[in-house]
Amino acid sequence: MASNRGMARIRGTKFRSPHGLPVDLLDRVLIVSTKPYSEEDIQQIIQIRSQEEDVTLTEEAATVLTTMATQTTLRYSLNLISCAQIIAKKRKSEKVDVEDLRRAYTYFMDEKRSVQWLKEQQGSLVFEEIGTVSKTFANVAYETT
Description:
By secondary structure, the protein is mainly alpha-helical.
């Protein structure tokens, strides 16, 4: 469980406690502190993942993936490995290179780029108009019956 609620009301009571959990429960909870991965840790994780997926990365590609993981998320960069492998196989290469990663990067957005794109497209997407269309349809349905 992860919580960033701070001091909150315990459900069903009038009492407040850290994270909204009863104090006696908090006393029994194991708290594990975490810290961000270092670049060496990320590079090692990428190497292990590429070995598990039988992907051969060039040194430059591994460096680019490490940088990507620090700027976006580790999950996103790990998922790009298999996508870049498919792109590399399509060009009949045994190794994943930086160009394969660039192409996979353009195909799949990370969270920050996705949010940015949605903000840019705000107001022009079809699903925003569904609410007004369904209300209009509902009014017409009621008028005809």
